[in-house]
Amino acid sequence: MEKENSPENGVSEDQVENLEQSLPEKSKKQRSALWEWIETILIALILALLLRTFVVQPFQVHLSSMHPTLEEGDFILVNKLAYKLGTPRRGDVVVFMPPGGQMEKPYIKRVIGLPGETVDIKDGKVFVNGSPLDEPYALGETSGGKFNHIVVPEGTVFVMGDNRMNSSDSRYFGPVSIASLEGKTFLCFWPFNHFKWNF
Question: What H or E segment, with its residue span, contains residue 189?
Fold first, then answer.
């Protein structure tokens, strides 16, 4: 019997017992590490979803109406809290779904007229409250549409694309409800050679 427990036979009973005890502990540590990874991934996914839903959301530019500021295919980031915590300002580039379900993809336009302001389009220019608007971002003359002279109703904004000869905007479908704005565009991040912010 003593011979069976001697080190000469390879593994002692104590060593076997220690090995048996260590196996469940290793298994527990492996399971704990795996669960920590799962928790980290789940938290990251939840935070990303919350961020996308309530704070910042990426959009792709699908039309050329904002040329030359934004090009078709550009990817932008939109601050979704901008108009929940504040109000639109002239020059903001905003994202919204087109009125009347004209398209399934969102429009990207620039705020031109604010609530209570009078917007006039004449002689290829935009006038706000009787004064010509300085628009270094605009491409081409501004032709008129259905809404050439309008007082912007409360709770809405008058928007236009920078590419004035190729933009469906408030000249044709009227002012846009502020409540319908997805947010304010603040960054173009792709492609990298189009990188810009606060435009």
Answer: strand 181-190
Centroid of chain to Cα 52: 7
Name the helix (H) or strand (E) containing 103. none
What 8-state DSSP symbol labels residue 134? Answer: P
Residues annotated as catalytic (active site), given as ranges: 65, 109
The pTM of this model reads 0.74
What whole-number distance in Å separates Cα of residue 47 and Cα of residue 53? Answer: 10
Q: What is the pLDDT of residues 72-98, one digit of tens each?
A: 999 999 999 999 999 999 999 999 998
Contact 59, 94 (CB under 8 A): no
Joined tokens for residue 131: 């004064």
* Cβ neighbours for 106, distance < 8 A, ≥ 6 positions apart: 59, 95, 96, 97, 98, 182
**Could you read off the pLDDT of 12-61 as tens digits, one per residue?**
665 545 545 555 665 656 667 777 777 677 666 666 665 666 678 999 99
d(CA 198, CA 98): 23
